Amino acid sequence: MKLAPVTEWFARDRPKLAVVETGITRERLGICVRKGNTALSDAIDKAQASMMADGTLPALIRQWLGKGATAPP
What we know:
3 helices
């Protein structure tokens, strides 16, 4: 779990608190599909490509994973 969005939310109305460091780890995330289920794998690949093309995936990554997170290549 990325903590930067949580800590920024927690500190937002507390002037004595400040987020001093973010982006100190890098996790690779994946989606598991049953071996041989090419229909589901292809559908996931197609949805991801569509979300990348229209900007939805990068926007979700920024919103939920924080400023330092980037979309997959």
